[in-house]
Amino acid sequence: MQTKDIIFELRTKKGLSQDELAERVFVTRQAVSRWENGETIPNTETLKLLSKLFNVSINTLLGSPRELVCECCGMPMNDSHISRENDGFFNEDYCRWCYANGEYTLDIWKLGDKKKFEEIKAQLIKEFNTLLHIEGLPKVEDLNVLSGEFVNLEYILPNGEKVKFLNDNATYLGNQLEGESKCYGIVANMDFLLVCTYEENGANPKLVMYRKR
Question: Burial code of 159-198, b = ≥16 C-beta within 10 A, e = fewer?
């Protein structure tokens, strides 16, 4: 789809007239009409306002001419993956797991050094493979960026107490590994290594090891 069609579709879906859209983004109705006729496209600042108003990326407004890839973790991104700044505007350079509300979610990324991040990730992989010695744990080949809300499982301790070790709002490096009879979940950051097992869809999680680094 072209920008003219995208703006028209988003405007009508939101139930806005051309006059109402113009008022929201501080332009004239004639400007909106020219966009939707394909005569012009919005300037950069107006695209930012449209992006925030319609909750889509500028890339989407322009007809998705480029593939968005997170500059931190390398993950391909669609609109639901893109991070935001404190003011609510999209930041199309990073995914929402690597960067949120104007801040990097992993300390190492605050350095802005992708090479250093890869070194840290390689070190964590090495520690999983050489330090833990967990029977049945497959070899760790890679670690992905994971949101705490997806990996913060609740474990039942021997005394019956239920406990979580992670933070739903934090970001971690981890992976799911397929063992012979069960799945292993591995999670790490600069402070710890965690290994657990679970059944399908994360059911019946059991903590195998939590090790401070």
Answer: eeeeeeebeeeebbbbbebeeeeebbbbbbbeeebbbbbb
